[in-house]
Amino acid sequence: MAKHQFQTEVTQLLDLMIHSLYSNKEIFLRELISNASDAMDKLHFLTLTDDAYKALKYKPKIKIELNKDKKTLSISDSGIGMNEEELIENLGTIAKSGTKSFLSNLSGDKKKDSQLIGQFGVGFYSAFMVANKIEVLSKKAGEDQAWKWVSEATGEYEIKKAKKADFGVKITLHIKDDESEFLEFYKIEDIVKKYSNHIPFGIYMDKEETIPSEKEGEEPKKEIKEIQVNKASALWTLNKRDLKDEEYKDFYKQISHDSSDPFLWVHTKAEGTIEYKTLFYIPSTPPMDLFRVDYQPGVKLYVKRVFITDDEKELLPTYLRFIRGIIDAEDLPLNISREILQKNRILETIKRASIKKILGELKKLKEKDNGKYLEFYKNFGKVLKEGLYGDFENKDTLLDLVLFKSSKRDGLISLKQYKEEMQEDQKSIYYITGENIALLKNSPLLEQFKAKNIEVLLLDEEVDAIVIPMVHEYDKTPIKPVNNSDIDEEIKNEEKVSEEDKKEMSEILVKMKEILKDDTKDVKISSRLSDSPSVLVYDKNDPDFQMQEMLKQMGQDNLPKVKPILEVNPKHEIFRKIIENKDFSSLQDISFLLLDQAKLSEGIKIDDVASFSKRLNKYIAKAL
Ligand code: ADP
């Protein structure tokens, strides 16, 4: 017998579950059934594909037994089982990255934390909500030695050698005194029907039946009969019209480990050259690991109802990684290897059709109920936008689905809405990128747009800075950044810079160019400014500041330095005064002040703050 300590996170999780209010204790059964079902799926797959397992008898069955005297509930399966090492690994640690990072960021408010944890799978450990002691008797398929894992959730557990006739797992819960309802046949039958009706395996229970006696005066006989409690009818294979919303919802909870209702589902049966069934769900809360590289894919692959894998990220594109569900293909070989899987033509076809189906469903929702679409968008819009980066085939649909903030309207707008409000002579869709929405709204770059009542999209999400420059156009209208030197012509101030101004300014520009030659590519007269004296723009083919930052973050730090173009406003008082006084001596300081100011208004850090302050103070003092 060996004692083991739980990993810290497990103790934390158990503590949360045992000592906090958890409103929905009955879900423990769904979690244990789900594990049993997964274990049988895994074994089935091996018996079909792995010679070492081919001789094993695969007889899938889940059995729940209640014992009121001993106050135990047990659940047995004939799945793959676990050996000693696996018991330690699986029932002593937490492997799921999302759960782990959630636990390391607990708020400390137990009620809040336990509500939060209820939003995602709590798995095996949830059984400690109703049991004060748990025994797991396990024998791995193909091995001889069985093991018994025992814990009272006190921070440690024991593992010892044990005897078990068949492979698989039997979990025995010693039910807490105040949870005795979980020893009642009808209660358990209800829970099974509610959460696990449509898993592909039968769940059995012993039912006591009273048989009336044939002879008068004799006591009726009691007989125990084993009955199947669930329908065991792989839900995705059934017809849409035979299924109730509740059944879809419960099935979602079973496969996703999410305890909230799904936001939306799409159930498809394709017949024809390639036959398959898909059932996809969009969750109503984002999965914990949505923005982690090691996210767990949510779609399971089946072939003719046989489970193949739940760990294949290629079944859907990464920008749909929030989707949960099932793909069941008819015409794939069962022993398909991972490498083949990823290049398989049939799967590729299913994938393409699935993407179209999901995006189409979202488009329909957006047209029908924009408010509800916004709910979805709040959770997954950012992820969806990633699709614009790689999925050229669905670019047009995606462009109809993505939303942006705007300089003229509150809330989020679509590109279609933008186009509807375009000015008559407006040539392009304009956007500005940056991190801070207040800075963006007040950027000098927008002055001319405001004057002309042209709307500008405010892109303050990191993903925007990467994907939008790749888009180029929407519905034949070009999409351009406001800091592109190229658009000067398109939004030119009507009161053009006079020839006289140009002449007077040319000398100043020559000097400024010389002064700023290390920091700027060019210094030019701007026609897009009305109030501000200066602004930074970028050459048509140069990445702007946001883009450069992005590239750096993505690990490209040996990029050539891209210098911006400084545009100045000849009508600004600063230049008027310099010209009136015919005194260029201040230009050395002014040039740097204008450059630094333009940087600040774009949210760029200035390198030499000390010199900036010195210059600024010099001119404040002069003015006093
Ligand atoms: P999850 O099921 O979400 O991975 P759990 O804590 O419920 O998390 O289970 C952890 C792991 O223990 C499972 O991933 C599985 O490998 C193993 N396991 C649990 N129950 C069984 C079972 N009945 N048969 C075989 N393995 C099991």
Write up what this structure looks like:
By secondary structure, this protein is α+β, with helices and mostly antiparallel strands. The chain folds into four domains: 210 residues, Heat Shock Protein 90; 139 residues, Ribosomal Protein S5, domain 2 (2-Layer Sandwich); 89 residues, Rossmann fold (3-Layer(aba) Sandwich), CATH 3.40.50; 125 residues, Four Helix Bundle (Hemerythrin (Met), subunit A). It has 22 helices and 23 strands. The protein has a nine-stranded mixed sheet with strand order 1-6-5-4-7-3-2-8-9, covered by helices on one side. Strand 12 and strand 13 form a beta hairpin. Helix 2 packs across helix 7 and helix 10 runs parallel beside helix 13. The radius of gyration is 33 Å and the shape is elongated. The model has no long low-confidence stretch (mean pLDDT 89).
Secondary-structure topology with pairs:
Blueprint: E1 2-5, H1 8-19, H2 27-49, H3 51-54, E2 62-67, E3 72-77, H4 84-92, H5 97-104, H6 110-117, E4 131-139, E5 146-151, E6 156-162, E7 168-175, H7 185-196, E8 203-211, E9 221-228, H8 245-256, E10 264-270, E11 276-282, E12 299-303, E13 306-309, E14 324-329, H9 338-343, H10 345-368, H11 370-385, H12 387-390, H13 395-401, E15 403-406, E16 413-414, H14 415-420, E17 429-433, H15 437-441, H16 447-451, E18 456-459, H17 462-471, E19 473-474, E20 477-481, H18 499-515, E21 522-525, E22 534-537, H19 545-553, E23 565-568, H20 573-581, H21 587-601, H22 609-623
Parallel strand pairs: 2-8, 12-14, 17-18, 17-20, 21-23
Antiparallel strand pairs: 1-6, 2-3, 3-7, 4-5, 4-7, 5-6, 8-9, 10-11, 11-14, 12-13, 15-16, 15-18, 19-20, 22-23
Bound molecules: adenosine-5'-diphosphate.
Adenosine-5'-diphosphate (ADP) is lined by residues 31, 35-36, 39, 77, 79-82, 90-91, 121, 123-125, 169, 257.
